[in-house]
């Protein structure tokens, strides 16, 4: 098949990388061992999302998102962590700024200064970063930023705080669509006094009328409804390189990374990540959620990596970026658009549900009762996938992106779709990001390993017990990620949001990363959806303990800072509302 230039560029990023070999030594170099956990007793309402650890007080700070609070956990004894206090960020924003705040989204700490990202009550309005003194939990100050501060992190030297301002549109209709931004805050924190200077970086120069529009990389995914480039780009997560000179920002929906020069406070460039070829050996997937078996096969799909959490590691003087390739779509934001508006935006109008969407099952795309655009030009030509087509054996339960497939699915420019673009990579990847090169991808490891452990019960969702519930969507959905150095070797810890558990890889040789361990405390005999009891405030309480569910945020703590004197991992589990501590044992 002759590929057009753009498609060759997109697919080539996977071909130059290395695929993982699923192999585990008899004696792994490290091993995660469960310690204690703190249970908020709140089920499936984001009661334990992002976590951080204060070296001074030995307290863990946990984002209790929807409450607008930060839970403070005494973790001097990681076998018996206890709730010490809660910071009510919402109340403090009201008290000190007279503004209405919404959910807390992220937290980080440096030298006793705690930073919290919190969105406005109306999510499309400007949010804030609030600062606290960890010694006495007192409010220090707050600074107004752009819309939806989603993630923040201090540089390793504590001199700057970098904030991803996601700027999501209003739900359902895109009536309000703020610009995505990155804020760089210079920090002067001495003697418990804070001086901070905020610099906000936007992407307006990359708009069609902007002076940097021609710098946009080929393969950048742009599909926001009537959105400019600066509205379409939605910063999600930030990693800082080894010498604090650059910030790497994941633009999840856009399948790209923005590189920020922290010295000049300028967006250096944007790197498109390309697509994952699921026809390639080692990239098999299970896309059938109804066949009651774990069956991984090569399929004519191109995976859009769309990383959520990312981390930067320095190995032999090279900055490598590690990405958890979760995937995301825009269906929530377009549901209320009319059929004409929907099709204008390259989405599709579901005739059964009477709403606009982007994620589409192949079987529905071949059903005129579900998918029948008003205009011929808006309809995908899926004749290759229909009866008699050369790709008609494709698993028809699989979800794909209508808008992205319409842009990138026709590889030979004959008007017919050759590949379907799916959300996420079902993997983690390692990139030499400065050279825009993939070094390693874990391929089909996550599904193979979980299938080996759970058989046909793999690819569960995180809030109910239903075998293969996520096979047709994003599989195990890797989301949380962190890295750590132990005994001179570098490890990646990746959380699987849906089925749960933690994947551990030794990435000391990035092109030859090796699987070390998969640990999941989830009890597969218990249906977590039985947690239906609500308290007086209407909060669903955790009555059925199915273990830790929905790992969302990781924090690696090395032995020098750890309360145990040895490295530990702290995990915030969004669905179970639990904060879990793990010892990391070494086998020298």
TrEMBL record:
Pfam families (UniProt xref): choice_anch_I
Tell me the keywords, alphabetical order: Signal
UniProt-listed InterPro entries:
Choice_anch_I, Mesenchyme-surface_protein, N2O_reductase_N, WD40/YVTN_repeat-like_dom_sf
* Signal sequence, start to end: 1-23
Q: Which residues form the Choice-of-anchor I domain?
A: 46-332, 363-584
Name this polypeptide is given = Choice-of-anchor I family protein
The opening ranks of the lineage are: Bacteria, Pseudomonadati, Pseudomonadota, Gammaproteobacteria, Alteromonadales
